[in-house]
């Protein structure tokens, strides 16, 4: 029951983050975006963790679909590109992946740890 509550809280937090990026998407900020909002998710890929990619990815996709339904994405003129990267729960590897994603993928929003 506690794990389910934590998962629902995590899903709620993800939805709030995606709502935030939908709000930010109204601002004309371009990093060579061609109207694409790029999100990088840095989480462990191992299902041993509650916040693993296999558990969180469906919630992120659901939140983005909800934003599209509610037309929160600047009248849906922008598309979404989600990139999932395995953080291995590493304080060393995660920041390196984040910097690489910021430079190479021109990421607008990071989710994860």
Automatic annotation (TrEMBL):
Segments crossing the lipid bilayer: 7-27
Record GO biological process: signal transduction
GO molecular function annotation: peptide hormone binding; signaling receptor activity
Domain of life: Eukaryota
Entry keyword set: Membrane, Receptor, Transmembrane, Transmembrane helix
Keyword Lyase: no
Statement: the UniProt record of this protein carries the keyword Membrane: yes
InterPro entries assigned: ANP_Clearance_Receptor, Peripla_BP_I
Name by which UniProt lists this protein: Atrial natriuretic peptide receptor 3-like protein
Organism: Dinothrombium tinctorium
């Amino acid at each position: 029951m506690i794990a389910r509550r934590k998962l629902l809280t995590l899903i709620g937090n993800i939805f709030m983050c995606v709502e935030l990026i939908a709000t930010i998407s109204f601002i004309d900020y371009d990093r060579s975006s061609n109207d694409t909002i790029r999100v990088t998710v840095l989480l462990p890929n191992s299902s041993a963790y509650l916040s693993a990619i296999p558990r969180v990815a469906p919630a992120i996709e659901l939140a983005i679909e909800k934003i599209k339904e509610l037309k929160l994405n600047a009248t849906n003129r922008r598309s979404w590109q989600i990139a999932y990267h395995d953080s291995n729960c590493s304080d060393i590897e995660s920041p390196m992946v984040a910097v690489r994603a910021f430079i190479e993928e021109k990421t607008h929003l990071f989710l994860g740890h």
